[in-house]
Amino acid sequence: MLQANTHRVGRSNNLKLVGGGKTNTNLSADSKAKQQSGEPVFDIAKFFDTQAQEVANRAYRSTTTIPAAFPTVLVEAVIKEAEELSSTFFAQLEQWKYETKFMSSLQDIVLHMSYQRIIGLGPRVIPLILRELEENGGHWFWALQSITGENPVSPEDVGRTKRMAERWLAWGREKRYI
Known about the structure:
The protein is mainly alpha-helical. It folds into two domains: 6-70, no CATH class; 82-174, no CATH class. 53% of the residues lie in helices and 7% in strands. The protein has a three-stranded antiparallel sheet. Helix 2 packs across helix 3 (72-100), helix 3 (72-100) packs antiparallel against helix 5 (113-120) and helix 5 packs parallel to helix 7 (141-148).
């Protein structure tokens, strides 16, 4: 049976490697099956505080399975990468919103350096973008299409921002990003 190891993360967050016969009700069905078979499971989302938990959900979408012998250093590296990605995304988001709030040209808005930097973060930010689109709206369609190479918006919905957002959010749920 795997011994639960606790790792200090950020302010008041704890992460634990969970395995053996332990029960974790917040795990996905796939991870519960793996846990019941005795395979250890590392559930990132459960062990973050409220804000960081959202970041983990956005960045990792669910539970990531890590073997029992997975070195603590690598677990900490995964956590650090998620925190850095989130920090970069939200810093660029804040700057983009501040510097484009009075712009009327959609082209100028999406060609802004901070927006382009968010696109440059690649597929790892898709959950963050979709959550931002869901909670606050915004012109995320260009970024989503650029990153994913897909466009779930039908031609008749182009220009209808609410419908476009609904289509992208449905796409995100279907692909399990949110």
